[in-house]
Amino acid sequence: MSPTASGRRLRLGLPRRVFSQVLLMQVTTAAGVAVLATGLFLAPLGDQLDDQAMRRALAIAQTTAEQPQIVADLEHSAPRPDGPVQREAERVRLATGAEYIVIMNREGTRWSHTDPSRIGRHVSTDPSEALAGEEVMEIDEGTLGRSARGKVPLRDAQGHIVGAVSVGIAYDSVRARLISAIPGLLAYAGGALAVGALAAWLISRRVQRQTRDLAFSDIAALLAEREAMLHGIREGVVALDRAGRIRLLNDEAQRLLGIGEESVGRSPDEALGAGRTADVLAGRVTGTDLLTVRGHRVLVANRMPTEDGGAVATLRDRTELEQLGRELDSTRGLIDALRAQDHEHANRMHTLLGLLELEMYEDAVEFIGEVVGDHRATSEQVTERIEDPLLAALLVGKATVAAERAVALWVSDRTRLPDRLVDPRGLVTIVGNLVDNALDAVAGTPHARVEVELRAEGRTAVLTVRDTGPGVPPEQRELVFTEGWSTKEPPAHGQRGIGLSLVRRLAERQGGSATVDEAEGGGARFTVVLPEALAEPEPQPARTGPGSAAVEATR
């Protein structure tokens, strides 16, 4: 071994591993605490005990002086060993554990004393301060030795000083006892230091296992890399401790959940409120790729338990994918409707061609008028009741799709909705989801029918969608609005159970409600109430129309 290498090995300095550093620091801390505690214990203890003893003596003296019977006995009796003042003083002394209670008159003559032979004699210490009206605390030498004393004036009912009360508590030298106790204290301190060193070693071993004997610099680097990774990925990460409290939120999780750093340390229920999202994060709902709705976002959540009893949940934003999937479903439905209409149009053209070849010109003209009139009536009957173009176009399109599915889609004669919606797109989403749900419910049933009613009550919009399907059992009327709940098979692009949940979320976001009950004659009736959904009304001419109009597309 070279001298240079040997010198490097013998160089003093802090060890690099966490185990060694923690052990060294804890042993040093334990030794310092033992020395400091011993010094801090010895230094003020004597003064504290002196002060406590004097205050106790003064309190006993004050309590004794407040007894009016003692004043009366002092003024109307002689100082005798069997006198009433001596009896009362001895009673108080035995009850309080004081060494003596001396009651004197203004001349300093004792009316009570622990030694009855001293009654009637002048006190051994100067009572002038107490007789002058002052309260005295001191440690002094008297006839009974060193004691902590409290002296107070004794006053009659008019407040005149008629004597004084002196109380003493036996008190040996605390400092002398402390000096004799120093070897024992040092022995205790040494024992505490040994226990502290053993505890430090055990803690260091545990830290070594938990940190896998990494250096502090390695741990710091791993932490920095973890922070960069967590806040850099485009997936929400929520970590919970074993008590179910949130201990970590990355930036994406905060954005998706709509919460901030103030939620760290709180449970999911406290941070998010009651709902499916909190249930998923807390582990009350289990499974993989769980769908949940937070605000206007559709999220996919997965939760993985950790070894320490906590869990890590990941969140993916599926809002755009869900919208694209629904648009794909709508597009497929429209394509099917267009394909069917193309087939129907070809049949009509063949019929028209046959009429022309048979030279039945009047019948051909009547046939064309019926076809064109049916389509025109469909659009006009919707637009005269629903003035908003988006909603009217939606219902006309849904009517075509319904007709191809052998379902009659009707707009109620009570429908009246002016063109002053505050959020027409939100209402389009609600109507579209409810109509789609109703069409799914009645598909394949005899005499399938869906009725839509939209009316304005002041600034409130009320939507009702009725169907002739099997209905919703009472015990499931709240479950149908839960994210991820559905009785149907999932579509090719993902999962069901989102549409009705979005309907309720959109309604509640506007201060409204979404409910379901049984329709007249059977089936389900969904009702959505949206307060403040319309702008301030303007004067409108009265409109009248026929009864309930069918918007069933003609085949």
UniProtKB/TrEMBL annotation:
It comes from the Bacteria. Pfam families: HATPase_c, PAS, sCache_3_2, SPOB_a. It is an enzyme of class 2 (transferase). The chain crosses the membrane at residues 23-46, 185-203. It is a multi-pass membrane protein. It is found in: Cell membrane. Residues 534-555 are annotated as: Disordered. Residues 222-264 form the PAS domain. Its EC number is 2.7.13.3. It catalyses: ATP + protein L-histidine = ADP + protein N-phospho-L-histidine. This is histidine kinase. It comes from Streptomyces thermocoprophilus. The lineage of its organism: Bacteria, Bacillati, Actinomycetota, Actinomycetes, Kitasatosporales.
